[in-house]
Design a protein that fits this description.
Elements lengths: L1 H24 L3 H5 L13 H9 L2 H32 L5 H12 L7 H10 L6 H5 L6 H11 L4 H9 L4 H12 L1 H17 L2 H6 L8 H4 L11 H21 L1 H15 L1
Helix pairs in contact: 1-14, 3-14, 4-8, 4-11, 5-8, 11-14, 11-15
Length: 267
């Protein structure tokens, strides 16, 4: 009983900021800055949402986020599966060294490489483009490691049988290994998409114009001549997080599975 109460208390602490953001977004600016604490708006006001939709490029930001997130997810899944298949099922010189290097990359956070990425994208003239936002985010070592662990459990007899039927490595990967691990692919795809959609630091540096900004970056442009507009900021934050929140609710089991897989790799 005590443990349940403690868990419920922590759950409330985690949910309350989201609740506060939603409630604040439906208040008028006058009600937001009024003295006292109001946990429920006296009257629901959609002015903040109307302002965001009519006076910002949030439609373009949604398109940018969707395109970059989908491409990043597809690129990460395909490249990681191919790399993991080679490390798991093929014998070639330097295989162990490559795997050790991937493990080493897994230990280095992207923030430590942000300057290198920026200089490289600037030299290729890819800043403020979709390609400049996408390319540095295609490197996800943990996805390779997770795939390799599952491919290691697939008997090599399957690959040998496919080779006897004149199937190449790509066909073997996408016709045998990927379907046999479809649940892993689905889980990793969802968690990769959510991570790409919520990514802020690199898109913030790479996208210098509103036309190429993603939603998390674009909402930082919500301003007003009279200072901070809390209701509008909260409305923009809610609109930014709504797609991934719906995705999480729909595919909650797969997201949880992906988190557990990543935690297992880290452990």
């Amino acid at each position: 009983m005590i443990l349940t109460i403690i868990t419920f208390g922590f759950a409330l602490m985690a949910v309350f900021p989201l609740y506060w953001a939603v409630v604040t977004s439906f208040k008028s600016e006058t009600a937001v800055i009024a003295s006292g604490i109001s946990l429920w708006p006296e009257s629901f006001n959609t002015e903040a949402y109307e302002h965001i939709w009519n006076n910002t490029n949030i439609g373009q930001w949604y398109i940018n986020s969707l395109v970059t997130s989908v491409v990043i997810t597809a690129g990460v899944i395909i490249s990681s599966a191919g790399c993991a298949y080679a490390l798991s099922q093929l014998d070639f010189p330097g295989r162990r060294l490559i795997y050790v290097l991937i493990l080493a990359c897994f230990m280095v956070p992207m923030q430590a490489l942000i300057i290198n990425h920026f200089v490289l994208m600037a030299q290729f003239r890819l800043l403020n483009t979709w390609a400049g936002i996408i390319l540095p985010q295609l490197i996800v070592p943990v996805t390779i490691i997770v795939y390799k662990q599952f491919f290691d459990n697939v008997p090599r007899e399957f690959r040998e049988a496919a080779q006897m039927d004149s199937a190449g490595h790509f066909r073997t990967l996408f016709r045998i290994y990927m379907p046999m691990n479809w649940g892993v692919t689905a889980a990793l795809s969802i968690i990769t998409f959510i991570g790409a959609w919520n990514s802020f630091l690199w898109p913030f540096l790479a996208a210098t114009g509103e036309a190429t900004m993603t939603v998390p970056v674009g909402i930082t442009q919500v301003k007003d001549a009279y200072g901070i507009v809390y209701a509008k900021l909260m409305a923009s934050a809610v609109m930014a997080g709504l797609p991934v929140a719906l995705l999480f609710l729909i595919f909650q089991r797969r997201v949880t599975q992906a988190v557990m897989l990543s935690a297992g790799v880290k452990g």
